[in-house]
Structure formats: structure tokens, C-alpha cells
Specification:
The protein is of the alpha/beta class. It has 15 helices and 10 strands. The chain is globular, with a radius of gyration of 20 Å.
Length: 373
């Protein structure tokens, strides 16, 4: 995740960097879901059966705590389909692990919303466009109205709430609409994800943006970030799954604040770009551990091994933890900004070429932008 709003504000006013103390786990506690989203990397359906028991999950949480996992993002499927979800989240809290909820919002009600916001440190709810766009993208007519209702219910409690939006050809015309919605409803955060080629996202690859469309979308997002900062609008913007956004951001920042250019670059290198297998991991609903949710390879299974034994060993994880990843070929081989983006998504590279260490095919940077100047 690239927290550009926080980075912009902290460098301009010279605040300490917001560095991740430990690692983040995105945990798909279930693969059961009441939607059929076009981009779903886990290909969730309503027919799924939960494989992991409450006891197994708690055991693994304790092992994760020992190994420096500080955040767990509750994902799915739709995580609220698990009856023991609050019990699991409370157990995380008891052990000092921060919890985020990633939800489609369809199970939010007036009766449970307070419980939800009291349990989780942050609530992210997915809206992928205006009503017709969202309903088509999420595979259910009427989903938009219920999801927007959930956003409003959660936001009215004063909790930290954000809208999650995925950029594709299906949704790009709603990008401005989503920002308008965030502004009108005074939502404190917007997370914009680029498509990764996994699950249905790979099956529906034709819906990915062209490089020209991506550049235009990112330029719009950056304009919003600088606008919000300069006008004092307290809306946080985060982008995900496209670390090259940080290079675009850096070029824009250098134009706006040339005297702070090198300080910003130092912060971006410290952030480190793609963090799969370094500061990020995924556990799926069957207990498989992956370097990120989209990764084509597993490194172990929590039902067969101690989490620490999985996380602390293995040639693949050792290679992923080298920064920057100069092993990557193609356009990354001579890129002078690879210490910022770290080569981008290995999942996208593998999906297109079958080579984990080939270039990220979605990189949209120009030759000039890849130079350090």
C-alpha cells in the first residue's frame, strides 16, 4: 500500500516517517461470499465451506505475534459470513494485534454496526462506481444501495472508515464519481487498487487498463492528493498493487517542492515499494501462506507447520526480501527508480510470462520517469 497523503503531509511539515513496525497479514478467513465480483482473486462463492477452525486460527495468531505480525486485515470472501469473526478479532486485540476489516458491507445493519466499529481499528468497504457500475462489477443488482447504506452507517459512528475502489476499464469512468462521493459524505479515507492478475482478475484480464488510461487515472488521483493537502481537506488517499505510483508521485512532488525532493526520495526508498514476502503476507481460507494474496506460489500451510517455521525460512522469501530486487529482468534491469517501486507485482509478472522475475507488465512509467534526475 502506498500511503501518499500521509507521506506528502509528513515530509512537507517535517514529521517522522510513518514506518511499519512489523508485518501485515491479509487473512482470507473464509472463501464464502454473497457476491460474484469480476476481479475476485479468490473466486469466492456462497457454496464454500470454512476449512480453518477457531482453535487453529487462534493458535496461528499467537505464532504470528511471536514473529512480528502487527496487523491483520480480515478479508475473504466476505469475512462477516464467519460466525466466530468477532471472537477472532477480539483475540487479536487481546494479543496486541491491530485489526482491519475489508467488507462488501452487505451484512451491516443498525443492530450490528456499533459492534463492528468497536471491534476493528479500521473498516474498509468496497464501492466500485456509481449504482449501475457497482452492481454490474459486483454481480448483484441492488448491491450498491446496501453497500452505500453500510458506509453511511459506519461513518456516522465516527469510526475510521474508508471506501475501497478497484481501477479497471469497467470502473474507470466512475473514478471522479467515487472522489465526489467521498467528499460529499465526508469519508476519511479512499483506497484505490489496481487490478492484479489472479483468480477472476486473470480470467477477466481484458478489463485491465491500458498504460495510457492508467497514467491518466494516476494523474487524477495525484491531483486530488495535492488538492486535499493544500486546502486542508482531511481525506487520506492510498493506492495499492501498483508501486510505480510512488515514482509518479515523486516526480510531481519534486515539481511542487523542489527543496524537499531528496528528503522525499529518502522516505520513498525507506518505504521500499512492493513488500510481498517482506512486510506483507497472505493466509488463504485453506491455510496456505503466500507472500501476498495474488501470489502464484505458496510457502507453507499453517495446518501442517508452525507459522514461524514458514515465515522465517525458504529461498523464495529470502529472494523477495532483497531490496531492491535487481534480479528482475526486462525494463526493470536498468531502471534507476527500482529502489522506490522494488519492481512492482511478481504476481502480474508470473501471470503473463510464467517467470516470477520478469518485469511487471503493468508498469506505465516513461523512460524519462525511470531516470533518477
Amino acid at each position: 500500500m502506498f500511503r501518499l497523503s500521509n507521506l506528502l503531509a509528513s515530509v512537507v511539515v517535517d514529521k517522522p516517517a510513518r514506518l511499519l513496525d512489523g508485518a501485515i497479514a491479509i487473512w482470507n478467513f473464509t472463501n464464502r461470499c454473497n457476491l460474484s465480483c469480476l476481479h475476485c482473486y479468490s473466486k469466492s462463492t456462497l457454496d464454500e465451506v470454512d476449512r480453518l477452525t477457531t482453535e487453529q486460527i487462534k493458535k496461528t495468531i499467537l505464532e504470528m505475534k511471536v514473529n512480528g505480525i502487527k496487523f491483520i486485515i480480515f478479508s475473504g470472501g466476505e469475512p462477516l459470513t464467519r460466525k466466530d469473526l468477532f471472537e477472532i478479532a477480539d483475540f487479536c486485540k487481546e494479543n496486541g494485534i491491530i485489526t482491519y476489516l475489508s467488507s462488501n458491507g452487505l451484512y451491516f445493519t443498525k443492530g450490528n454496526v456499533q459492534r463492528i466499529v468497536d471491534t476493528f481499528n479500521y473498516i474498509g468497504i468496497s464501492i466500485d462506481g456509481d449504482e449501475s457500475t457497482h452492481d454490474h462489477f459486483r454481480g448483484l443488482k441492488g448491491a450498491f444501495k446496501e453497500t452505500l447504506k453500510a458506509v453511511k452507517l459506519a461513518n456516522a459512528t465516527g469510526a475510521k472508515v474508508g471506501i475501497r475502489f478497484t481501477l479497471t476499464k469497467e470502473t474507470i469512468n466512475s473514478l471522479e464519481y467515487i472522489f465526489n462521493l467521498v467528499e460529499e459524505e465526508d469519508i476519511p479515507k479512499i483506497y484505490i487498487s489496481h487490478l492484479v492478475y489472479s483468480g477472476r482478475g486473470l480470467e477477466n484480464l481484458k478489463m485491465d487498463l491500458s498504460k495510457e488510461q492508467r497514467r491518466e487515472a494516476v494523474a487524477f488521483i495525484l491531483n486530488k492528493a495535492f488538492e486535499y493537502y493544500k486546502t486542508g481537506r482531511n481525506i487520506e488517499i492510498v493506492t495499492g498493487n501498483m508501486e510505480q505510483d510512488a515514482v509518479m508521485f515523486f516526480k510531481r512532488f519534486a515539481q511542487e517542492y523542489p527543496a524537499l525532493k531528496e528528503k522525499m526520495r529518502e522516505r520513498l526508498v525507506a518505504w521500499g515499494g512492493n513488500s510481498a514476502g517482506r512486510k506483507l503476507l497472505n493466509i488463504n481460507s485453506e491455510g496456505d501462506v503466500r507472500p501476498d494474496p495474488f501470489f502464484p506460489l505458496t510457502v507453507g500451510n499453517i495446518m501442517q507447520e508452525n507459522f514461524g517455521d514458514i515465515w522465517q525460512k525458504g529461498e523464495l522469501l529470502d529472494q523477495l526480501r532483497i531490496h531492491p530486487r535487481r534480479r528482475i529482468s526486462g525494463i526493470c534491469a536498468d531502471c534507476e527508480q527500482i529502489d522506490i517501486c522494488n519492481g512492482g507485482s511478481r504476481a502480474r509478472a508470473y501471470a503473463i510470462t510464467g517467470d516470477l522475475w520478469s518485469e511487471d507488465p503493468s508498469c506505465y512509467l516513461t523512460q524519462e520517469e525511470k531516470r533518477r534526475n
